[in-house]
Write the structure tokens for this entry.
Amino acid sequence: MKFFVEKIEKTYTRYGEKYTEVERRLRLDRIIICGVAAIVALGLIFTSFTVVGAGHTGVVSTFGQVSEDVLQEGFHFKAPWQKITKMDNRIVKLEVSTEAFSSDLQTVNVNLAVNYRVDTAKSFSIVKNVGTNYEDVLITPAVNEVMKSIMASYTAEQSITNRNIISTALLDELNDKLSDSGIYVSDINIIDFDFSDVYVAAIESKQVAEQEKLRAKIEQEQLTMEKESESARRVIDAEAAAEVAKIEAEAAAYAGEKEAAANEKIAESLTRPLIEYYKIQQWDGKLPSVTGADTIITMDNEKSDESKEE
């Protein structure tokens, strides 16, 4: 016992000041208490304000009770026991992959990009009724449901050609479904339609068959056109030949008529002296070889007359 008393009554000297072990311990306890108090005070100070970023709202919860008065952008004071849930009210992109069936019972895997925003006036309602995981609770299930409903109205082939129509219908139906919750969809982009390998192979075969059919049709039309062109050419040639024959016949008839008229005029203009004159002009001076005793060659009218007198 004496040993402990001596140990407790042991004195210390620091900076020229003497103090006992008890005093040293009391000083140490005061330092610890002051440090803890300072930490608590700093914690209270830092938990007594909050900063809401641009495009966000702060939903205030007091002991679990959500207030309808949300904090707007900027610096705000609050009670240390209040919790601030910050909601992003900007346009946010959410990618959703879903599987649907077309009207011809083909499996279609669809990848979507959904652009949405949370209404600032209903931020507290979403935090209160849904929580911060509203994408998984509200948006993704709604996209899956609406997409399946719309795709059931189109065949797999129509879903490709009517992509814009499907996007518009999806946008309208999603807004009808989510607007009451304070979520508005501003745009939807269908990134990709993916079909089964069997269906893709069938589509390729169909396209090849249609291309072959189109090629055969074009070739048949070309052949028909060539035949029609050949027939038309023959008709034109026949008509041209007939026209030529007609023209030649008319020309020949005209020439015959003209020649007959000319011969008639010549016959009318011929006289006996003129005929004898032409004979003399055409004679080459040689007497013809004549057989027979009664043959008489008349050279002109005078000789003929002398022969008659004799």
